[in-house]
C-alpha cells in the first residue's frame, strides 16, 4: 500500500478504475474461503462482515493464495530478529551458476525465510541467463552421471518452483526449457533409481489437433496447462501444499481462458461430426475433443458456454455418437450428456426429448440393455431417471408446462420402451426355475438375454417408473408384472430380491386396481414359492419378502386375507418369524370379532379410514367381514370393488434403500425395515398369540379336531 508499506487488498471498478474497497491484510485468522468462489472476513474495527464473490473459481483461488502468502510474511515479520536475517537480503545478484557454486546456490535457494522469497524471485528474473546456465551445468553433470551434483540440481529446481512465482513458472514450462527442467527432476535423492520423465513425454505425449486451432494464445495455454499438470504429477510427493495449490490455480485460470477463446471453433467441430465423409479416426478424435471441452466447461463452471452448445445442436450430435458401433465412443457420448445434465440443463434436455423426431431416449434405453462392462450401465440408467423424474430441475414446484412435459416423457417411455425392457427380462429367464442349461432360455424378439448387472439396472428403472405412474396402469396390462416376476426363476438371489422389491414398489401407494389385479392373477405365488425354498436363510431375498408381507399387514386388509387364505400352508413352517406371526394374528383377530353383518355393511366398513386391521388398542375395534367357505378370489373381488384407503399413513418407499440393507429375520419386523409398536400394543399381541395358539391346538387332526381345507376358515 502506498506510503504505509503495509500489504493491502484493493477492489477496483473495471469500468472507471475507481477504488471500491481498500483492506489492510491482517495476520489474524479472519479470512474464510467458501464454495471455491467466495472469500469472506470480518472487520473488527468497524464490526462489519465483508465478502468477495468471484465469477471464476480460478480468480478466487488466486486471490486466496495471495492473501495467504501475505499473512505468512506478516507472521514472520512479527517474529523479526537477527535469526531471520538472511544473506539474500545483502545480495545484489544471484551467485554465478557453475558446478563449483552449486552448494552456495542451493543454500541461497532453499535456506531462506518467506520474507526473502520475493527478493530471490527478483534476482532470478533479473538474470536473463540464469536458467540457461543452470541447464548447461545439468547437461555436464548428466553426461558424466555425477549423482551428487544432480541431486543438488534437483533440490535447486524444486526450490525455485516452490517460490510460487507465475513469471518463473511461465519460463519453466516454455518450449525452450521444459524438457531440461523435467530432466533435472529425474534425479530425486529420495528415489533410489532415476526416473524417465523425458522418455515418457517424448514417446507417449502426443498433441492431437482435432480441429485447426488458429488462435496462438489458445495453443500456448493448452501446451502450458498440460506441462504444468505433468509438473504437478512429478512433484506430488516433494512439494508443499501451497505450491500444489498455486499450480492448480494456474491450471484453472488457463482452462477458463481456453474455454472462452475456443467456443467459437466448436461449430466447425459439429460440422465435421455431421459430415458423412469424416473418417473413423478423425471422428474418434473429434468426440474426444468434445468430451474434453465439455469437461473443461464443467470444471470452470462455464454453464453459459454449454447452453450455447445445446442451442447449436449438441443433443443431435450426442444422438449420432450413441448410434456408433464403437462402445468407447458410445460411453463418451453418454458421459458428455451426463456432464450437460450436471450443469442445470435438464429442462433443455427434456424439451429436446419430447420432440417426436428425436431418437435420444430410445438410444439410451438400447445402450442400457447392452453389456458395456465396468458397471457403465448405471450411467445410462441415471440419465434416463433424470429425464423421467425431472431430477435436478431448479424449480422445486413444477410449472404446468413442466408437469405436462414430464407426463409426455413418461407416456412415451412406457409406450415405446417399457415393453422392450420387459422382453429382455423374459429372454433372460429360464422356462423352469433354476435351469441354466443350454436351451433353457427362450429368445424373445431380437433379445437373447442379458447379464445380471443389466437386469438389476432394469429393475431399478422399472421401480422409478412405477413411482412416477400414479395409477400403475402401465404395469397392469400385457402381464408386465408377471413377466418381471419371471426373475424369481433366476438362481441369483439379488435378481430375485429385485423382483420382490418391484412388487413392493407397486404396492407402495394403495390402489384398488392393483390390489384386485394381484389377487385375481395370484401374482404373489412365485414370490411365496422362492421364499419357502429359501426362507430358512438369513439373506437379502428373505428380508425383501418379509418386508413385503409386513407392508401388506400394515396397509392392506384385502391382501392380508388373500395371503393367509392362499399361502398359509406353505408359510406355516416359518410362523416363528415375527412378521408372519403378526400377519396371522391380524387375520385371526378379525375372525374373533366377526359378527353377523351384511355384505353391504362389510364394504361400508372397508371404506372407513382403512385402519381396521391395525386398530388393536381398542377392544371394540371392528374389522372387515370375511365370508366362510368361499373361494378367496370371489371374496376379495367383492371387497376390492369398492374404494378403500390405506390402513396406515403411507410413507414414500425407496427400493434402493431397502436393497442396501439386509436385516435379520429375528428382528421385530422380520424384514429390512423395523416397524415399532407401542409397548401396550405389544403386550396385547402376546396375549392374542397365546389365545390363538391354544385354540389352534384344539382343531389339529392329531387331537381329533376337524382339519380345514386350504383357504377355508
TrEMBL record:
Domain Serine/threonine-protein phosphatase 4 regulatory subunit 3-like central, residue spans: 112-589
Subcellular localization, as worded in the UniProt entry: Nucleus
Polar residues: compositionally biased ranges: 690-702
Keyword Transcription regulation: no
Region called Disordered, residue ranges: 593-713
Name the record gives this protein: Serine/threonine-protein phosphatase 4 regulatory subunit 3-like central domain-containing protein
Predominant location category: nucleus
Keyword Amino-acid biosynthesis: no
GO MF annotations in UniProt: protein phosphatase activator activity
Composition bias, Basic and acidic residues: 604-618
Signal peptide stretch: none
InterPro entries xref list: EVH1_PP4R3, P4R3-like_central_dom, PP4R3-like
Span of domain PP4R3 EVH1-like: 10-73
Pfam families in alphabetical order: EVH1_PP4R3, PP4R3
Organism: Arabidopsis suecica (Swedish thale-cress)
PANTHER family given in the database record: ATP SYNTHASE GAMMA-RELATED, SERINE_THREONINE-PROTEIN PHOSPHATASE 4 REGULATORY SUBUNIT 3
